[in-house]
Design a protein that fits this description.
Helices cover 36% and strands 22% of the residues. It is α/β, with parallel strands linked by helices. Strand 5 and strand 6 form a beta hairpin. The radius of gyration is 16 Å and the shape is globular.
Length: 176
């Protein structure tokens, strides 16, 4: 299962083309659990997007938790980037989900792109800001949006780091 997850991450990394634009990233940050604070602008399809995302990230070794459905006082509440400046709120997210990062996903109203911001739940610092676009004019299905979100968020996985380190070490092997 983990080998297939590494393969999925390698394929996603190879396929990352002009569909994903990363604006900022903290290279040292890695997550084993990621909480998702809902999907804004998803027109009632946010749950499907998060389910697909959880499935895709799960196969690569990263657990994805929908904060909307967590067993917490936060369940059902809509969090914004402004609200999470409260350290108590971030502590509750970490307690309820055991997450390393908190992801905010926003869909364009016409589904032409999605934006993702991830915060480190320990200190509230942003660790990733990226944008993803569909292959066509707009995302046709929630699964297509999930795949692009997984492509963006997959770089935060511990397995992605191991795969990158393995590739780097192969580059250092001298050619006879």
């Amino acid at each position: 299962m983990k080998a297939s997850g590494l393969l999925l991450l390698a394929v996603l990394a190879a396929c990352s083309s002009d569909r994903v634009e990363t604006f900022s990233r903290a290279p040292a940050f890695r997550a084993t659990v990621l909480a998702v604070a809902g999907v804004r602008g998803a027109r009632g399809k946010g749950g499907e997007i998060v389910q697909g995302l959880a499935s895709m990230l799960g196969s690569s070794g990263m657990r994805c938790v929908d904060l909307q459905e967590s067993d917490s006082v936060l369940a059902g509440s809509v969090l914004s980037l402004d609200a999470v400046s409260n350290p108590r709120l971030m502590a509750e997210v970490r307690r309820a989900t055991e997450a390393d990062g908190l992801a905010f996903i926003s869909m364009d109203t016409s589904w032409r792109f999605l934006e993702i911001v991830v915060l480190d739940v320990r200190n509230g610092e942003p660790v990733l800001k990226a944008e993803g676009r569909p292959r066509g004019e707009a995302f046709a299905t929630p699964q297509e949006a999930s795949a692009v979100a997984a492509e963006i968020l997959g770089v935060l996985s511990q397995h992605a780091r191991r795969a990158a380190l393995a590739t780097d070490s192969l580059d250092e092997i001298p050619v006879p």
